[in-house]
Specification:
Length: 120
């Protein structure tokens, strides 16, 4: 399975971006897939995930109400809609997939990342 992110860029605070993660094959019905991010000088953190049963989970208070994870099965693509962006959202964003049913507790394949920069 290959994952390719796109959609990052530079935006002012309060703006929006939609990230995309193209997946090389249809996997959503069998696997957990999610978005993660790593800011400069910080550890990588989970943002949101989509479980194989369709359940969505947002991992932190900082994204609730601002970020939305979704998928398009026909396009084998995962999305992360990010609204009301803040400078603290500046990071490299990655999508990753758990291929063995561990609810994204362990991720097996990662994309190369897409950079999001939010200016104040």
């Amino acid at each position: 399975v290959q994952l390719v992110e796109s959609g990052g860029g530079s935006v002012q605070a309060g703006g929006s971006l939609r990230l995309s993660c193209a997946v090389s094959e249809y996997v959503y019905h069998r696997h957990c897939i999610g978005w993660f991010r790593q800011a400069p000088g910080k550890e990588r953190e989970a943002v949101a995930q989509l479980d194989s049963d369709g359940t969505t989970r947002y991992h932190s208070e900082f994204v609730k109400g601002r970020f939305t994870i979704s998928k398009d099965n026909a396009k084998n693509t995962l999305y992360l809609q990010m609204d009301y962006l803040e400078p603290d959202d500046t990071a490299m964003y990655y999508c990753a997939i758990d291929l063995y049913g561990r609810k994204c507790s362990i991720l097996d394949e990662w994309g190369q990342g897409t950079l999001v920069t939010v200016s104040s």
